[in-house]
Write a structure and sequence with these properties.
Layout (H helix, E strand, L loop, with lengths): L3 H20 L5 E3 L4 E3 L4 E3 L2 E5 L13 E6 L4 H13 L7 E7 L4 E4 L1
Parallel strand pairs: 5-6
Antiparallel strand pairs: 1-4, 2-3, 4-5, 6-7
């Protein structure tokens, strides 16, 4: 179950990213509703995801282009495993992934 700290961190990053995207004259990415994606070995739902405003011909809507994973109670190994799922699946269209680690005294964003 998602904790409130997890939800707040995801929401805050989404707000920051969206504010940045609004400043760009022609933003290429838009936030998308996260959906469960089946990879080769498991299924996963990103905490945050973005896809092109216009999906290119031949590209599936299944995979987002950019994903974010938030960690509140998960260990670093689990977070790295989640990122590998998004970037290393043969069918994946994910080009970039970030992690957002919520610690008691700080929030850390890594790519």
């Amino acid at each position: 179950m998602e904790s409130s700290a997890h939800a707040v961190a995801a929401g805050a990053f989404n707000t920051i990213f969206s504010a940045w995207a609004r400043r760009v004259v022609d933003p290429l990415l838009s936030p998308t509703s996260t959906r469960t994606v089946r990879g080769q070995t498991r299924t996963k739902k990103a905490d945050l995801s973005w896809s092109p405003r216009e999906i290119p011909n031949g590209r599936s809507y299944k995979w987002p282009t950019f994903v974010g994973e938030v960690a509140w109670s998960e260990c670093r190994t689990k977070l790295q495993e989640d990122i590998r799922f998004w970037l290393d699946n043969p069918d994946s269209a994910v080009n970039a992934a970030i992690t957002i680690s919520v610690l008691r005294d700080k929030i850390m964003v890594e790519s």
